[in-house]
């Protein structure tokens, strides 16, 4: 995908060299820009078959398309239309970014940039001869304005070589049917408007910029199911992959590295309770005792969030001071709901919390030192060994000063505010004070860049994660220094965290399938029907909160559960032991070197899983979706034409003593299987059908259990599994 284009490009023109000098582009970045412009010149592109820049969330896509734009200006393009998401703040951010990048060209009258809402009434011929950039949000009336501008007011522009850049063209920008959300229906209309405008132009190209490869599977045309239930991505005219810079922090840090014991990422996630989110959704002073915010258990998450933010910021400032660096200002985002009434209530709660913290400090209440020390000790666990870590007394003193000097600003950020108030000169969210605690909704998830973000409190309802993508809400992704990551914390419920983790995996696997070209980039989209049959389904019918990504060697298991009372458990375990013995006696095959591995019909394994399920008690947010688990096992065991069809390998192990909670992180254990023993064997056996590792834990009370033995199942997907999107639930037809 990174082959050089056919057209020979001019690289020493007016626009591109200053950008190279200003931004210090690396060789691989320049290559992508050259490829992009060459292909835009050589290839016919439309909104239905666009050129595409595919990057990661906040990974330098804007930097890449602006470089391509400058190179394009030096090679024949004269007018660029930049389409942004439907947000005034994002229009302003984009406008100011373009203006900043091309300052010299603007001053030399080589280029003019206009926000379509503020374009002068009558442009003179002199002005129209310049290279032009027009920025507008994807909104029906704006598209009508663009149409009038090009064909009624300044028809001379229609003969000039034009480039449309559809920024943040994630799958919410793609046109498709059967979607309730009005904005997405509007975007279907907008896609039609773009095509109408482009059809009347003599020479126009179209480039999409996106971070979500899912959009490739949701293009308007050809939504038919291909052979073998797979979907080929809608192939753009060409795709260029934006290089990921070495300072990029994304889902890998939050959802993969976080599982590694001892890694700083293992300290990132702090679980909050569903009850706390409910408290923050609407004002209810009968339920919320605002005078108990410093010690009430119900407010532990928001209390920890605010105090960790203050302490973490001060640790960084002390480190910067010691290194002789400028003291940075820091940001925190609280994003739980979109209603303005909820934002006002959350602001009131947080202001009360700040006030009580200050009062505790002034009264020398021991709780103040205790709360600061708890945050300090948590950060001590995630510190880098090569960095200075200040003493507690120094941090405590700096926190006191920050509260006395009112360095903390708790501010609502929503669409009603004046954009000029929100953004600084660089188009980023303005950091007015050393500590900026932002409370908001949709405006924070539309591509707005937030500098020095070290805290994220997230609570959007995962039941509604359908076409809207959580990944676009993930403002904590981007260029983040590792020293900042050491004091970064992410707060959400376990249920939401699991959905976000699934979506990260979903995005990663689709990207991998597309980039590698494995199976021609095809991905299987299937869902479980109401009668438990497995059906192929359209990608736009998938409810993303129920997605499981299937890939070779993946482990699937319950975690966070507790066992039922010991007396009941012993009775159930006798039944399970009898069932396991019967399975082994009637096995179709037994491993020649290990008689604890045997081949069983999937129906018998399903019965076993249902029996095991009855021995568990689940905490909210940690429920085991046995129905989907069984459906996945059923699908994997049937997806072969060999004599193993309909069977599962069982790998049995006894007498294990795994703790329920890891001491090092305080998180629930999710790796009861030993890599060098049963997991290695299970993956070797799972060539064409799945394996189920069945581990009998002793369940001792000192390990956090209830004193009775139980079985812990781990399903391992076959080596030959193709990239598959398995939806436990789909979007209901209307």
From TrEMBL:
<dbReference type="InterPro" id="IPR018310">
    <property type="entry name" value="Put_endonuclease_Z1-dom"/>
</dbReference>
<feature type="domain" description="Putative endonuclease Z1">
    <location>
        <begin position="303"/>
        <end position="519"/>
    </location>
</feature>
<protein>
    <submittedName>
        <fullName>Z1 domain-containing protein</fullName>
    </submittedName>
</protein>
<dbReference type="Pfam" id="PF10593">
    <property type="entry name" value="Z1"/>
</dbReference>
